Amino acid sequence: xxxxxxxxxxRSRTPxxxxxxxxLSLWLVLCAGVAAANAAGDPPAAVHExxxxxxxxxxxxxxxxxxxxxxxxxxxxxxxxxxPALAPLLADAHLASWARIALEAIPGPEAEAALRQAAGQxxxxxxxxxxxxxxxxxxxxxxxxxxxxxxxxxxxxxxAAAVALGRVGGSSAAKALTRALxxxxxxxxxxxxxxxxLCAEQFLSAGEYGTAxxxxxxxxxxxxxxxxxxxxxxxxxxxxxxAGVPLLLEQLRSPNKAFFNVGLSTARELPGPEATxxxxxxxxxCEASRQPRLLLALADRKDPAVWPALVEVVQHGxxxxxxxxxxxxxxxxxxxxxxxxxxxxxxDADPAIAKAALASLTRLPGNEVNAEMLARLQTGDxxxxxxxxxxxxxxxxxxxxxxxxxxxxxxxxxxRAAAIQAVSSMGGAPELRRLVQxxxxxGAGQRAEVESxxxxxxxxxxxxxxxxxxxxxxxxxxxxxxLGIHALAAAGGPDGLAGVTGAxxxxxxxxxxxxxxxxxxxxxxxxxxxxxxEQLLQMAHSTxxxxxxxxxxxxxxxxxxxxxxxxxDQKAEKISTVMPLLQRPxxxxxxxxxxxxxxxxxxxxxxxxxxxxxxxxxxxxxxDAWAAMLEGVSKAKDSLSQDERRxxxxxxxxxxxxxxxxxxxxxxxxxxx
Amino acid sequence: xxxxxxxxxxxxxxxxxxxGAVAPSERIVMGGIxxxxxxxxxxxxxxxxxxxxxxAVCDIxxxxxxxxxxxxxxxxxxxxxxxxxxxxxxxxxSDIDAVLIATGPNWHATAACLAANAGKDMYCExxxxxxxxxxxxxxxTMRRTGRVFQAGTQRxxxxxxxxAIDLARYGKLGxxxxxxxxxxxxxxVMSGWEPPEPEPPKDKxxxxxxxxxxxxxxxxxxLLDGFNFEKxxxxxxxxxxxxxxxxxxxxxxxxxxxxxxxxxxxxxxDQLHARYGNGVKLVLRNDGWLPLGSCPVRFEGETGWVETGxxxxxVASSPALLVGRGxxxxxxxxxxxxxxxxxxxxxxxxxxxxxxAACEAHIACHASNIxxxxxxxxxxxxxxxxxIGDDQANRLRAEALREPWRI
Lengths: 673, 407
Known about the structure:
By secondary structure, chain A is mainly alpha-helical. Chain A has helices spanning about 20-40, 45-60, 65-75, 85, 95-105, 110-120, 125-135, 145-150, 155-170, 170-185, 185-205, 210-220, 225-240, 245-250, 255-270, 275-285, 290-300, 305-315, 320-335, 340-345, 350-365, 365-380, 385-395, 400-405, 415-425, 430-440, 445-460, 465-470, 480-490, 495-500, 510-520, 530-540, 545-560, 570-580, 585-600, 605-615, 620-635, 640-655, 660-670.
């Protein structure tokens, strides 16, 4: 089960082919593994029998590959019985890593004893591996073996023993490491320190703070690579708990960036009011360049006691940058009073502060925030209204829609603009009606905002909004009718299409033009809004204006192009109907491109080939047509007879002037014959 | 209500020393480990950041070492990029602050822990771990060493996913009921022991280092596809882990479950059904998606639903839910995620895809794979990090690393 390359289990397909006999045997073993794995509820006797079979493989002269997979299976099915068969493999350079997979997984003293015994028998990397496995098993009985190996001449072995002692943990392991640290060579000392830190971490978790602190402090005072000192410093602060504050502050004041960084991360970890109090005080003392980073660390503590300091910096910070960071810190703090503070900042004279605050207000989580915003909008400080209206839209506070709709008539421009923006985000059909009414009375400054809102809501409402827009088409103002065309197109649907089509007969030529352009680029849901295609086809055939005809044909072709449900033959037939209207090279080329693309979805039949062939009459398109035909033949195995395909290819060979196309056609012809 | 990323970045560039000319003290000096196809893309994003100085590459393949060195040198117009075959030599350089780890998944956790113990911050491609034990140890190592870790799950930094997740987290869909993730195949793909082939010279391809923590096997060029080799420990990896490290991770986030994992996993037909302690269901399925591109996720609540994918379009049960969805960024670029990592290197804040969150998301994927492998329901205790009453499942939580490697 475990070792087959690209193998998938019983839930997936099986490999089709096997490259060798040994792989096949492996496959059979793996299948048996699946069966056993699926039979988790098998009686112990069955599991025992499976284990005995696996043990027999290890004791046989089976190939190393088979023994390797067997080890892996014993990781699941093995018991103490398997250990004697696995243990000898610990001395095998190729199979030791496989054997350890099983021995690490098999519970019980037998596997641990085998590893301890091997530690006295193997050397070099194999010994390192054994020590690493002892570390995983956290075998306290191995402490003497590990301690002895701290002085091994092979530094890799000594390092592995040191880390293993750290993993095993406890006072005996700590004692061995403590003794070894000062007298160990430089290449081992770092690993011993790592072992000490691992030990200390276990003491810390167990609440043995004093023991942990001593270990950390010992490491901190040793001659070690910086990383060992950094992690010991972190531990020393945490082990001291409240008394660790001075050591924490020492790091935050360190000229060494690495220790300052430890201060920043540990400032987030060290719990308690003493730490918060000291860090807040430090915020006022530290140099300006460090203030923003300390602010963020303070905010991450999520301690309400940080709050006044954050507010102070938001309101009176010494630089713009630190104030912006404080805004984010307020947001991160999750404090219930964030809203008024951020609202105040959103009204700040400095645009950077206001922008940051608005972004934070947009992100503040929770329905209770929405409720408070609504309450303030209804009864709060009028200066906050524009910001709150903006937020109502950005946060989509539906309950605020009536307030926003009313505020669209506000005499105060900022409030009015924010209200229209909010309505634009939340409004529906009633608001569309209202906006249409407002257009008649809007001043030039406001009109752009209203129009934008109208288009936004139209697009969101879809076809359901179109009836509300139709009055625009009856306006005496041509600009209103053009806006109506855009809004109806955004809404789409039968009413939208009817409104735009009707505008083709508008008394104003500019409105007619806009209707034609809009129809040709019907911006809604091609091809679902397929009625537009028929309108375009009708316009293409009936219009007297050449420019409209071009627009209509192009729009119609684009419709065909976008329709993924239509077969290649259906597209060919529809293109044939507009062939007489394809006067310009651009449209002809587009039509041929559509035909060429169509075969990637649907195999082409005779109508498609006839249509493509007709394009070959145009010298500018002939080569593209032959290339398309070549591609079409390759896709037409099920839709054309062999004879028909051969004839098509012969045509390409005879007519194409492109050597590359001819050669491809000849090659295809050769294969066909 | 809008996606976190729809709004401009808050921490001003000046605060983090990346506006205009970057002072040397604010520069992040980087190296790369295992820079193949994906790594080259990531590296391009890193090189585009003004406060990054990339100076060294390590790869077991000579061709890749040279290609990446050339890429870096061309970018900076110098010849400074050093090359290494052994990652330990690169990690020993005291002038390197952070590393990009883009090896195959066989190496990710081991290299990440080595990097952390060497005092480097890291951006590590996914899947980050081979099993549950590695997931836990990765997180513990980052905490102990105080290093900044960002998993290469860049969708956490893309506006459409963040927006959909905000809808779920902040109650816009009502009480969450079901989360859907696209695992990209639920088969368990193995990396095996292939017939031996002549081993290339070490300078060209260092097979021993390539195997690294994976159990020994003879050289075979078919296994040199690092992207798939030993994914999920060569035992229970495959699609669920490859894509799940993204999609399941997003579901975890949507359920505010960055600190936990589902408690129950069960293969059901072609799907895997999991359940969180808070009752929310997680469904891993390959079909039934709207056409929204790769890596789709769908979140359902009692009053609404939302679905999005790599095309960056968002579809929801109501248009009203989509208000304020912000910028559309398709094609799942990593640059925002990489910027988040670099900022966190400077602030020491937790990254978006920090080791704790990545640990739990990977545990969810590994536990799913174990249920698939055993082909039965398993129950998991995310506090004790063990399967309940299931010795076989528990034995699948870990796998020994080949000597001399350890994490």
